[in-house]
């Protein structure tokens, strides 16, 4: 069985000078997306973080894991297979894999933009979504446009460059993502 569906043209969600936001609704076949999610949920080196916000230290409301691609990837995790699937439709010199585990609808990340200093211009940030569907909000980094909401399906891929984004808390979220 193939790891991913035959590549199709992505949906263009937003337009900007850096290529906008492109979305592949089903890069991975559903069974393989679930298998990859289960392996990462159960086997990744998850850690919690605390961060200063509004003059106090709070728990970051999600779990995180990260892996440098210039190091050997851990055996037992499907990271190389997932990277191969992403690079089949979005070739770029990726240097790291960051994982976020949203355990329920209370886990979230506020509107922010990623640090782009480690990226090789003009390559994108690729977001492969696994697990329960989750709504992501996107808008121009300078706030000049209204936020656009997109529900990320399991096995979907989103490519973006410099847009701000958020996965807000939601009572509608059912399951890990």
Automatic annotation (TrEMBL):
GO terms for biological process: DNA alkylation repair. InterPro entries: AlkB-like, AlkB-like_sf, ALKBH3, Oxoglu/Fe-dep_dioxygenase_dom. GO terms for molecular function: dioxygenase activity. PROSITE patterns: FE2OG_OXY. It comes from the Bacteria. SUPFAM superfamilies: Clavaminate synthase-like. It holds the Pfam family 2OG-FeII_Oxy_2. Residues 93-177 form the Fe2OG dioxygenase domain. This is Fe2OG dioxygenase domain-containing protein. It comes from Xanthomonas campestris pv. phaseoli. The lineage of its organism: Bacteria, Pseudomonadati, Pseudomonadota, Gammaproteobacteria, Lysobacterales.
